[in-house]
Amino acid sequence: MADTEKMIETTKEEAALANDAERTRDCRCYVPRADIRETEEEVLIAVDMPGVDENSVDITLEKDVLTINGTVNTSAPANYSPAYLEYGIGDYQRRFVLSNEIDRNKIEAKVKNGVLSLKLPKAAEAKARKIAVKAA
Amino acid sequence: MYIHRFPGSSMWAELDSLQREMNRLFDNSFSYRRRSAPAFPAMNIWTNEEGALVTAEIPGVDIKDIEISVVGESLTLSGERKPEAVNDNEVVHRQERGFGKFTRTVELPFPVDANKVDAVFDKGVLKINLPRAEEDKPRKIAIKAG
To answer: What is the pTM of this model?
Structure first.
């Protein structure tokens, strides 16, 4: 229901897995929220993945699909029992299809405070190619 | 005495359960609408006899923008997540992450010793350790045989 989503704004969305394959890790997988912006030079993607640092995020580019995987330490605190749990803790996965404008060799990624910032510069030919459209 | 279970009783059971479902549906939807602004961030509260551990996920926020205050039994977490400015030459394709000020107060099940509270902010996850106030810890009472 849309109302339940708004109550606690950070309701996490579970990821649907490709080809119905199961994950080998025994925890939930969520779809992290992302902001995508584009300038003439590059595409900037910022992904919210709390609990992830630069060693636990895995970014792969295969054909045209950019896959972002983040793993998180999901163990519950020792010697405590849960009193009130509002959110689940789990891994993150999200896939994006990139256009061929992106220069694959120059992709940069940074992680700070649980936010992954990806900078995808556009290839030089893509920047220059502008086709003028004339009215017929 | 021959007690016969009428086949019709299962029909009433169906209607009863349907009515309960409808009641529950309407109760839930109306109470959601009466609620106030959405709560951010989502918190997990773990407790044991010694105290409580509260965790919240607040990615993208600087430590200096988070404030935690503890009064008696309630914990208030507030802060601000500053948005990145959109330059003129940028086109926004997706904006899914939220920004702005947030504040949230939760009531803990016991009063807390405010001097011994400590908090750690790591990788976007805030963990607050709240030890229970000494006077409130449960005392074991010895039972004497009478």
So the answer is: 0.73
